[in-house]
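Quick one, tokens below. Sequence please?
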């Protein structure tokens, strides 16, 4: 699993963004997502980083990672992220399918 302190850093970063009311729906959705993945064995070697109320997930020495951001309702935008913040392959997925799609994208980045 990613070190507990990495997930604590994610929670702290989201907490600092709480002062911006406009972000409250996004932060609530992203916290739901974090709760779904942080104890999931499929994400054991994933390192999370918060970027503008979204997450970038990466594995080991992979070049780039996978970005996920709340879009609206129960929809998330998932995309490949290469340095410096070059996004590609964006796909919109419902909350009930986002974990599967994240796994699929992370396999593509390995």
């Amino acid at each position: 699993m990613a070190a507990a302190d990495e997930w604590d850093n994610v929670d702290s970063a989201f907490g600092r963004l709480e002062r911006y009311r406009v972000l409250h729906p996004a932060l609530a959705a992203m916290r739901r997502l974090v709760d779904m993945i942080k104890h999931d064995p499929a994400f054991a070697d994933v390192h999370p980083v918060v970027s503008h109320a979204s997450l970038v997930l990466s594995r080991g020495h992979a070049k780039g990672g996978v970005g996920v951001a709340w879009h609206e309702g129960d929809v998330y935008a998932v995309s490949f992220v290469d340095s410096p913040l070059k996004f590609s392959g964006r796909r919109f997925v419902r909350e009930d399918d986002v974990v599967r799609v994240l796994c699929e994208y992370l396999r593509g980045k390995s």
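The two ends are 17 Å apart (CA to CA). The beta strands are 46-51, 54-59, 65-72, 75-82, 86-94.
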